[in-house]
């Protein structure tokens, strides 16, 4: 489902900005790593996780990042507003995905079905069972 990667990326950004607000002493690397571990890591295999670790080495210094994203206005207030607004939006997207039977636990199960090359009849029966529970 196309919304899952977008949802996860937005979740990562909200967590990253939250970390930057709550932990002014953290480096960008610390904030990104904590955000990644809380949001994206469980969805990534070894290759994606390793790629994140390599990409993290290219992250700018915190001061430079903050300068680039907020050249005018009150950056902390803007980040707090972003976190509040998008957290609400993410909750709505999550409700929508669950209504389609794509809760994140179920998504793992569906991925397992795909890997097992189940027939559409077997997958349909499994989805019906999930909807009933």
Automatic annotation (TrEMBL):
| Protein name according to UniProt | Glycolipid transfer protein domain-containing protein
Q: Where is the Glycolipid transfer protein domain?
A: 6-70
Q: Does the keyword Transport apply?
A: yes
Query: Where is the organism placed in the taxonomic lineage, from the top?
Result: Eukaryota, Viridiplantae, Streptophyta, Embryophyta, Tracheophyta
Record's keyword terms, sorted: Transport
Any one GO CC term of this protein is: membrane
User: Could you tell me which SUPFAM superfamilies the record lists for this protein?
Assistant: Glycolipid transfer protein, GLTP
Gene3D superfamilies linked to this entry: Glycolipid transfer protein (1.10.3520.10)
A molecular-function term among this protein's GO annotations: ceramide 1-phosphate transfer activity
Organism, scientific name: Apostasia shenzhenica
User: Could you confirm whether the keyword Transport appears in this record?
Assistant: yes
């Amino acid at each position: 489902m196309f919304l899952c990667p977008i949802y996860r990326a937005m979740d990562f950004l909200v967590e990253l900005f939250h970390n930057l607000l709550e932990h002014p002493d953290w480096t960008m690397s610390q904030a990104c790593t904590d955000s990644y571990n809380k949001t994206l890591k469980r969805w990534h295999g070894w290759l994606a996780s390793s790629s994140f670790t390599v990409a993290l080495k290219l992250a700018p210094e915190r001061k430079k990042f903050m300068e680039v994203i907020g050249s005018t206005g009150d950056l902390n207030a803007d980040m707090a507003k972003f976190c509040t607004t998008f957290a609400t939006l993410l909750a709505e997207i999550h409700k929508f995905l669950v209504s389609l039977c794509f809760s994140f636990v179920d998504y793992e199960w569906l991925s397992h079905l795909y890997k097992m090359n189940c027939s559409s009849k077997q997958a349909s029966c499994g989805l019906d069972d999930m909807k009933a529970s």
